[in-house]
């Protein structure tokens, strides 16, 4: 009886808060769900939390069966990841089929998996073997999906660092790096053939951190600022992220394609960093994300594509305490592992607590519901 009461109460609160949660999140926001940490809540608790936030799209860096199972029979759409360490294997048709049958097929009937990213920021590596294996791996995974009759449900792509752009200013003159031209051209041809998007990880924070004296903080945070006008198109840009997206579109066009969508697979701002990571504060992170959410709510496109709302996945859901690298890498989360917001990003919801039984067979609830309510600006 006690168990039924707790679960019924939890469901009631979930439905109530879902109706009052920020509705912008149905308009195109996705969130990256990284798990390089040893203190994160269980996937089942995260599933309830995200439903209270009305988040309907998640991106993973793997195909964690625990996560996919926790979100079964939900409305959440997943991008699952196939790590760089698998690229060599994925050029083999048997190994590619085994991966899809083991990691995708068991879940796809109950969990909405819509995309596989084959590799992540491959061209950031100096290993040219990875570069050479990327497209063959993408093609083999796609062929496997075709053979299994899943190619209409699941698209194939890869996520790239903005580092692949050789020139981004002005946006209309965007080009890919010359040393990558051969690889990128072939990848774009494949995207055009199978009608899948080109994913880019775009972080205005990096540009500001590297050159804070020349780049306006207001420009990278979507705050009021004079902006810049592209001399070739007379298009005006009031923020760097949109300029970066249009630079990618220009680079794609320079390679002969106008039929490929650009999706932002990662963007975010750290709330904490090392002394040389200028601008990594909770105040700046709050401004970046709340202003970005406002633009997503307005379904705003870039100056070059004003009628095409940008598809955006924010990085990341939680702070990840085991991530290597500078301090900022551990502090991109919108939330702490206990479910409380790191800063005011404009989201509201709750993280359910842990339900467990005592030796006397009576139910105990530890922090049964952790509420947070951050009003949208």
TrEMBL record:
This protein's record includes keyword NAD? no
EC number(s): the record gives 3.2.1.39
GO molecular function ontology, one term from the record = glucan endo-1,3-beta-D-glucosidase activity
Which superkingdom does the taxonomy of this entry point to? Eukaryota
Per the UniProt entry, what are the Gene Ontology biological process annotations, in alphabetical order?
A: carbohydrate metabolic process
Q: Where is the signal peptide?
A: 1-26
What reactions does this protein catalyze?
Answer: Hydrolysis of (1->3)-beta-D-glucosidic linkages in (1->3)-beta-D-glucans
The protein's UniProt keywords, in alphabetical order, are: Glycosidase, Hydrolase, Signal
Extract the PROSITE patterns matched here. Answer: GLYCOSYL_HYDROL_F17
Q: What name does UniProt use for this protein?
A: glucan endo-1,3-beta-D-glucosidase
Taxonomic source organism: Populus deltoides
């Amino acid at each position: 009886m006690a168990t039924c009461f707790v679960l019924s109460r939890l469901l009631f609160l979930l439905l109530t808060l879902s109706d009052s949660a920020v509705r912008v999140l149905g308009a195109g926001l996705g969130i990256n769900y990284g798990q390089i940490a040893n203190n994160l809540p269980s996937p089942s608790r995260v599933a309830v939390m995200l439903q209270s936030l009305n988040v309907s799209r998640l991106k993973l860096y793997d195909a964690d069966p625990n996560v996919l199972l926790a979100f079964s029979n939900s409305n959440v759409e997943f991008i699952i990841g196939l790590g760089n360490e698998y690229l060599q294997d994925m050029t083999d048709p048997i190994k590619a089929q085994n991966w899809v049958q083991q990691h995708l097929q068991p879940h796809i009937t109950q969990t909405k998996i819509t995309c596989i990213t084959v590799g992540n920021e491959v061209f950031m590596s100096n290993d040219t073997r990875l570069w050479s294996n990327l497209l063959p791996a993408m093609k083999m995974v796609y062929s496997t999906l075709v053979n299994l009759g899943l190619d209409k449900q699941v698209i194939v792509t890869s996520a790239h660092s903005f580092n692949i752009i050789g020139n981004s200013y002005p946006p209309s003159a965007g080009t890919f790096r010359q040393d990558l031209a051969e690889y990128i051209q072939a990848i774009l041809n494949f995207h055009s053939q199978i009608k899948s998007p080109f994913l880019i990880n775009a972080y205005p924070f990096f540009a500001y951190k590297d050159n804070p004296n020349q780049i306006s903080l207001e420009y990278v945070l979507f705050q009021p600022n004079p902006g810049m006008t592209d001399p070739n198109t007379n298009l005006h840009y009031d923020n760097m992220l949109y300029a970066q997206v249009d630079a990618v579109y220009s680079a794609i066009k320079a390679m002969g394609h106008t039929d490929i969508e650009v999706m932002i697979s990662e963007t975010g701002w750290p709330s904490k960093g090392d002394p040389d990571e200028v601008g990594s504060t909770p105040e700046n992170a709050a401004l970046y994300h709340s202003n970005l959410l406002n633009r997503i709510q307005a379904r705003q496109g870039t100056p070059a594509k004003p009628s095409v709302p940008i598809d955006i996945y924010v990085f990341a859901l939680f702070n990840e305490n085991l991530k290597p690298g500078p301090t900022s890498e551990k502090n991109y989360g919108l939330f702490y592992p206990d479910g409380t917001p790191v800063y005011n990003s404009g989201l509201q919801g709750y993280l359910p607590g842990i339900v467990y039984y005592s030796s006397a067979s009576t139910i105990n609830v530890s922090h049964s519901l952790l509420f947070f309510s951050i009003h949208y600006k």
